[in-house]
Each structure stands twice: as structure tokens, then as C-alpha cells.
Amino acid sequence: MFISFRTFRKIILGTILLVSTASLGLSLYLKPYLIHRNSAYVLAGILDTVILTSTLALTRRSLLDSPQSVAMETLGLFTLLPFALILTLYVLSLSVTPEPTTLSIFAILQILVFIGTTLHALYTLGLILTAMLTVCAFDRDVWSRHIDSSPSPFPMTFLFLFIFPCFSQRDTTSFPTEDAPVLNQERVVCLPGCNCSIAKTEIPNTSPGLEPNMQMVSGLSSRSLVRVPNDIERRTSIAIAFEV
Fold it and tell me: What pTM, to 2 d.p., does this model score?
């Protein structure tokens, strides 16, 4: 129903990284055409910080073999958010030499900076709200969880059903259905020569205990005896080892 949070996180951070890298290249290219050339250093400094933070968040586990906790990523994003907003306002206030090519490139730079800041703000606010919702739903220790772990610290299906309980399906496995066999039905068999009012039926050729067993096998084959645990149960499971 939903994509995994790990995939969503990589898409968002990868997009922010690409947009920031492109913005940095355009800022350095436009340095000779800026009215105040030192403004390029301000842009480059903030963009370098965003690029470094995004790269570290994506490669921390593989390079440093250190987990990235939810609290650490949230704190880093929230700290950089004011600088990203300042960067957007600063780019909108800059001026370049009035040349057609320069103005077009500068407009692209402004659009890229605005897109990067918007993604940064949405991801930061979304991560904070999702973590707070997870705390209220079932896991108070979500801030210390590894954000890229498996199972995900944010099971989206469970959180969606927690917000909208009307969409949760009722468990009907305990109720008999028309197709499900009933094992405790009694079958009345009349012997030849019986004068009772019940309609006569022939004695089955099978043994008395065979038919209930066949019904049981048929009923069990239509149902799954093993249920795969969900993300919440996998997180709270306990490993048990037997010594030989």
C-alpha cells in the first residue's frame, strides 16, 4: 500500500543533494556576474553545509558503520532549516548584470534553491510529525531507533490505520463462513430395515473416522497456519535459543 520509509528517505535526501549540488555549481558560475561578488561565498557556504549533511545522512551506515538515529537526523534537519530559509530569501534579493543568458541562469538558480528549501522544510516537518505520532501510537523509544533500520521505525500502514481507524478491516477468521467446513456436524445414518421417520441413507464405505479427518484436512488446507509478523511485532519480538 505504501512505499517503505527507507526508499522514501533516500528519494528525498537524494533529490535535496542533487538540487543543492546544481545550485552550488550555478552560484560559482554566476560569481563574475553578481553585483556583489562576495555573495557567491555566502551561497556556497550554506549549500556546502546542506550537501555535506545530506551525503553524511545517506552514507553514514556504510562509511562509518554507525547508525543514524531518528533524533540525530531530526535535529540536523531542524538546525539547517533556518539557514535554508535565509538562503532562499538571500537569493531572491540578489541582482546580476542584465544579460539575457545570465538572467536565465540566475532564474534557474532561484528556482532550484526554492525547490531545495521546500523539500527540506516538508521533510523536516513530516519527520517530526511522524515521530510524534509514532510515540503516541505504540513506540515511545522511536527517537533512539535507527532511521534506516529494518523493520522501519515508522510502519506507515499501522500509522495510517491509527489515524483513520475506520479503514481497518475486522478480523473475521474466528467466524464460520459458508465455504468453511463444520467439523462438529452429526450425520444420522439409518440401517436397512429401520422404520423411523428419517430418510434412509446408505452407509458410507469409508471408515467412521475418515470423513471428519478429511474435512479437517480440507479446512486446514484453505487457511494459512503460519502468519508473517508485521513490523511492530518484529520490533517487539524476542529471540529464543535452545541449548542442546
Answer: 0.67
